[in-house]
Design brief:
8 helices; globular; single chain; mainly alpha; about 220 residues; about 70% helix
């Protein structure tokens, strides 16, 4: 594999060069801003998620400036890390599972989601964002599961799932709308996704703080 090979996968990029995707590159600042805002307001697993959120902004920024194979890896690895850690935290703090059980289930769920994403990559209309639709479905699944035992968490997760669906649609329309929108729509994926990931961290943080508030 040529790790330095150039990748041209977005509407805004019309040629090589670090600043060939200015909107896609600049909107990664949203991830950094949300992570920086959350950092002093979080502890424990939420702070870990905020750190990964910052890494998502850096990795995506590298990809949309350098547009190489290795930068693409720097883009996707933090995203997978965020999903894995959040699944573990959800299993631990929403479902009350032990750490080993929560971790094993999180890893298995991530692998399963990857397999479903690979299957969706062959479906017209879903291929462009195939790896991300299973994540939205997972969030919705947790929201449905927690509707009775944790209604506030459930509502928060439904909001997260809806926001992710909106951002995925924006990501998917980048190519089809390119003739009419020279900048494409990928930048909107960054903006909405940054807000969504920050919201997901906030949902977890509020839930973990609730027992402390109840104790006064």
């Amino acid at each position: 594999m040529d790790w330095t090979a150039q990748i041209d996968g977005y509407c805004e990029r019309l040629g090589p060069g670090v600043w060939a995707e200015p909107a896609n590159a600049a909107t990664n600042l949203a991830f950094l801003a949300v992570a920086a805002w959350l950092w002093p307001r979080t502890t424990g697993v939420e702070r870990g998620l905020a750190a990964i959120l910052f890494a998502i902004g850096v990795g995506s920024g590298l990809f949309h400036t350098l547009a190489t194979t290795w930068a693409a890896l720097a883009d996707v690895v933090p995203i997978a890390g965020f999903v894995l850690l959040y699944l573990h935290a959800a299993n631990r703090h929403f479902l009350g599972w032990s750490a080993p059980m929560a971790g094993g289930a999180a890893l298995g769920t991530l692998v399963l989601a990857g397999g479903v994403g690979a299957l969706l990559s062959g479906v017209p209309g879903l291929a462009a964002s195939a790896p991300y639709w299973p994540v939205a479905a997972l969030i919705a699944g947790y929201a449905a599961l927690l509707r009775r035992p944790l209604p506030q968490v459930s509502t928060g997760l439904w909001i997260g799932a809806a926001a992710l669906a909106v951002s995925i649609v924006a990501r998917s329309l980048d190519g089809p709308l390119c003739p009419a929108l020279p900048l494409g729509t990928h930048f909107a994926w960054h903006l909405v996704n940054a807000a969504m990931l920050g919201w997901m961290i906030t949902v977890l943080r509020r839930h973990r703080l609730e027992p402390r508030r109840a104790r006064g």
